[in-house]
Structure formats: C-alpha cells, structure tokens
Design a protein that fits this description.
This protein has about 475 residues and is mainly alpha-helical. The protein folds into four domains: about 230 residues, no CATH class; about 80 residues; about 80 residues, Serum Albumin, Chain A, Domain 1; about 40 residues, no CATH class. It contains 20 helices and no strands. The chain binds a DNA duplex (7 and 7 nucleotides) through helix 18.
Length: about 475
DNA sequence: TTTAGGG
DNA sequence: CCCTAAA
C-alpha cells in the first residue's frame, strides 16, 4: 500500500520533469509521441536524477547538425548530404546482397532478433506509457528491468530491454530520430560534454548500443551502423500498415516456428536497399512483397533480383496469401529518397520523358525495386507536386501549397524546366491546336474515323467512351 | 513488352 | 502502388 503511494508520488514529480523536457523537444520541431518514449529512455538510462540540460544539450547538438535536413533552407547542401548518404546506403545494399547468398551463418542471431522485436512490441507501449508518468519503473538508475519485466515479460534481460527500447524509438519517427539518435550516440555517451552522472548506467547504455550495432551489422539493421559512423541517418516512418502487417507476420512466425523464421531470415537478408531504416522489422515484409509482385524483369543487370525472386517465391505464396487479403492494393511504398528523385530527373532530362525503361536500366539498375512504371509514376507525382500540371479546372494553380514535403527548390526548378521541355502526357495539344496549318486538316479528315496518329508525337488519348 | 492513364 | 488498355 505504502509503496504504491510512494510510487505515485515519484511519478508525479517525474512527470513534471518529463513535461519540461518535452517542451525542449517540442519547440523546435513539433514532434509526436515518440519523443516521450525516447525521452523517457534517456531519462532512465542516465539515472533518475537527470537532467534537462542534458537533453537540451543533446538536442541542440542534433538540431545544429541535422536541422538542415528537414527544412528546405539549405537545399543544395541537403541534397549533397543525402546523396552521399544514399550512395553509402547503396553500397551497403550491395554488400547485403552478397551476404544474402550465404546468409545462413546469421541464423541464430536472427532468431534472437526476431524475438527481440517480438518483445519490442510490448515495450513500445510501455515506452509510450512512460511519457505519461510511468517512467518511474524504468528510472531506477542501473537496472531498467523492473518496469519492463513487471509489466510485460518477466523473463527479459536488461540488455534486451534496453536495446529493444532504442530500436523502437528509432523506428517510430524520422525527425525525432535524428535528434534522438544523436543524443544516444553522441550526447548521451559523452559528446555533448555533459558530465556523466552515472558511469554505470552510461556504460550500460553504450554497451547496449554496441550490441545493437553488432546485431545490425549481422542483420539488416544497418541503420545504427550508419548513424554511428556518419552521425546521421535516414529513417522512414513506419506506417501503421507496416506495423500491422509485421505483427501479422509475427504471429505467423510464432505459429510456424522455425520454418517460418527461416523464411523471414532469408528474405530479410536479401533485398533491403533503402529500407534499412525500418530497422529490419518491416524489411522482410517489404522485400517479400516486392518479390511477390513479380514485375517484368528480364534484363541482365537484374540477375540478382531474379535470384531473390526465385529464392523466396515458395514462401511468398503462403505468406502473402493471408496478408494480401486485408490490404489488397498498394502494398508497400518505398519512399523515394531525394537522391533517387534527382537521379530520376537527371535521367529524364537526359533521355526524355517516356523512356522509362531506359532510365531505369541506366540509372536505376542497382535498385531492383524501382520499375520503369515506378519511375513514371514518380515523375507524374513530381509534376503534380511542382504544379506544372493540371491548372485545375478553376484555373487555380493549386501549386504545392500544402504538400507534405514541399519539394526542394532546386528540384522544383528542374522539374518545372523539364515539364516545359516535354510535358508528361506527351504532346499536350489537344484543344486549340496551335499548329494552325496541320491540325484542322487532320481533325477534319480524322473525324471520319482515321486515328490521328499522324500528329506530331503521340496522340492524346481521348476518352470517347466516357 | 512498354507506355499511358486511371484508381 | 496497382491495374488495364493501347501500341
């Protein structure tokens, strides 16, 4: 009884702290819930007495270093950075592929890892809970297990709990992540110059991070490796859908036991180009979906992907079966990285609009997941985003006003430029043919039924049947 | 098979 | 992203 009361007390005090810290985070960046989770984690691992300064410090660090990423104030540098990073990722990607061939060696860890993830789902809720004040449990300076083991699985060791926690927080949100990881890797350990309050806890934390890193290098969680190396990383937001599907698969995995996990592992080791950010959790899902899609590829440079296809096909069947039931269409989106977009634009400006296969072959040969169609779709979206298309019946230019990601100016310029040179739907001369001489004649003659294929370029598809 | 367009 | 009709 008494204990409970005391707990409540400390909860409330802690709560105050948390809230304050929250402000620090919320101010510059307006972040979501996950902030709390990470925050609590930091709080906990540093020992309970900690230290808003620490966070502000850590945060500042992150902000100054990564802030440019999100704002479009520094496009060029931004692009550059991302480009470099992308290259990095690509390389890793290739390494991944190599690994995939003899990836069996990683079996055990993978299992463990899956289990970890499994557990993570519990933790994640708990993590969120922390923000509300339940962080007390975790706040005990050295052993963070009490809260965790108490509320979810009694059997989980410290290491698991902490690493998992990190993982989860990382998966949750991009922007936050940048700062958060920064804090974890740099600020927390020592970089931000905050005096280490509790050697032990810090030690633990870094240890855990280490472990995590190791894990990553073995699996596909390259995220952390990158983040620790470059001090920066990109994370994709984990869609609800991702989470759902993953949990589905997780269940499946539990049912099927070893066999399924093997399948997962296999797949996880294969594709995964950019999506490392998902921390390996949803990665398997992604790759398998791509595989399932079985797009037309017969070109030589895509042997690897073919291999993947073959190797994972058998399991895809039963795996996708129960998933595709729910969310039929629009499986998984693979976010376009800025560098990809740039590549695309480059390609278009070089080969012209419509040469999607060429562009794909020449510029995206390494990324097996981008089909020519994807390229085209992306271009279409770019046009739309740049406002270069569809003046919108009312004549309102509707531009990119409130688009989610405003599209960097540098890109915007190029897109518009390209849009001018060759408008996407190819020849946009439908009504009011500006070529006064030829057009009317054709129209009149074509009206009998002859297809206007003799027009300058492609004919504008018209929907007579509409 | 590839492109275009629509959902 | 997915699907389908055209070419």
């Amino acid at each position: 009884m008494n204990e409970v009361k005391e707990d409540e007390l400390s909860v409330s005090t802690l709560e105050d702290e948390t809230i304050e810290v929250e402000h620090l985070f919320a101010e510059p960046k307006n972040e979501h819930v996950s902030v709390d989770g990470v925050l609590s984690f930091g709080d906990e691992s540093l020992g309970k007495c900690l230290h808003i300064e620490d966070f502000s410090c850590g945060f500042d660090y992150g902000l100054t270093n990564n802030g440019g990423l999100d704002s479009n104030t520094t496009q060029e540098g931004d692009d550059l950075q991302l480009d470099v990073l992308d290259g990095l990722l690509d390389e890793i990607d290739e390494v991944d592929d190599l690994d995939a061939t003899n990836g069996l060696s990683n079996a055990c860890e993978c299992e463990d890892f899956l289990l970890d993830i499994e557990f993570a789902e519990n933790v994640i809720k708990l993590d969120l809970g922390l923000s509300k004040g339940s962080c007390v449990g975790n706040s005990s300076s050295e052993s963070q297990s009490p809260g965790l083991s108490g509320s979810s699985n009694g059997a989980v060791g410290i290491s698991e709990s902490s690493s998992v926690t990190i993982l989860e927080s990382e998966c949750k949100n991009d922007a936050l992540n940048k700062t958060a990881t920064c804090k974890l890797h740099g600020g927390l350990v020592s970089k931000c110059g905050c005096p280490p309050p509790d050697e032990d806890s810090i030690h633990d934390t870094s240890l855990e991070l280490r472990k995590l890193d190791d894990l990553n290098s073995d699996k596909n969680l390259i995220v952390c490796g990158i983040s620790s190396a470059g001090g920066e990383k990109r994370l994709r937001k984990q869609t609800r859908r991702y989470i759902e599907e993953f949990s589905d698969k997780k269940l499946e995995y539990m049912k099927r036991g070893e066999k399924y996990s093997a399948g997962m592992r296999r797949r996880a080791l294969t594709v995964i180009p950019e999506e490392k950010s998902l921390g390996g959790i949803s990665v398997p899902a992604v790759s398998q979906f791509r595989a399932r899609r079985g797009r037309p590829k017969k070109q030589k440079q895509e042997i690897e992907s073919d291999k993947e296809l073959v190797s994972s096909e058998s399991e895809d069947d039963h795996v996708t079966k129960n998933i595709s039931k729910k969310h039929d269409r629009r499986k998984h989106q693979r976010m376009w990285t800025p560098s990809e977009v740039i590549k695309l634009v480059d390609g278009i400006s070089e080969y012209g609009v419509g040469r999607w296969t060429d562009i794909k072959r020449l510029l995206f040969s390494t990324s097996a997941y981008r089909t020519p169609i994807d390229l085209r779709d992306k271009w279409r979206n770019l046009l739309r985003a740049s406002g270069a298309q569809k003046p919108n019946k009312k004549g309102v230019e509707q531009k990119q006003e409130h688009s989610l990601r405003p599209l960097p100016n540098s890109l915007l310029r190029r897109v518009l430029e390209l849009a001018k040179i060759h408008p996407y739907p190819r020849v946009r001369i439908s009504k009011n043919l500006c070529v006064g001489q030829v057009a009317p004649a054709i129209v009149s003659s074509a009206s009998k039924g002859a297809p206007p294929s003799s027009l300058g370029g492609r004919t504008v598809r018209r929907k007579n049947y509409n």
